[in-house]
Amino acid sequence: MKRSNMVFLGLLLLLAAAFSASAAENNASKLIVQGEGEVSAAPDMVTIVLGVETHNASAAGAAAENARLMNKTVNALLDAKIAKKDIQTSRYSLTMAPQEEPKAASEMPKPPEFIATNQATVRLNDTSAVGKILDAAVAAGSNNIQEVTFDIRDPQPEKDQALALAIKDARRKAEVAAAAANVKLGKVLEITEGYGSVAPAARSKVFANVATPIQPGELEVTSSVTVTYQVS
Asked: Vertex 36, ends 192 and 127: CA angle to 5°?
């Protein structure tokens, strides 16, 4: 037999063996389980959305008063050692408030009222300074504090830990299921990563007439996997 024919025959045998192994694996009994992992972590950054809202009978008056109070607020934030790059205007609007229809024909319509709103997003690396920053902003004239959001700057290490715990959880479930079904747990055929997330940030509404004790607490980093095992 020629050498080329022998090589071709060898390739056919290899392909047949690979196909046979693949078919056997596809036809093997499988056990599919889901695992979840969760890791707690202290936040190391915080984002504050605050600003000033002013009302006036004239648009110019509302805008001017808003600018005065917002400048005081920004200066207070700078005095609190917050860098300029960490203070960003996130919203500005100047609108006329909706007017109510006169309840009686003889009633005169109310004069228009203009509303100026200026909001800034402030980023902090010190989560323990939130209460002090809020107090300083309110004292300077900020009267529209929207939310306080805690987060983790680099959650990847926690995500990796949560993923490892999810795989361990899947293995535990698979062992329980295999024992209950009286089958032998074999090798892992496939691992598919599911959702992974950091728990929604804590939000706190703050008002000028109450104290501002802000607790960062902890965030939950979660992960899930779907693992396919061969069983016999």
From this structure: 115
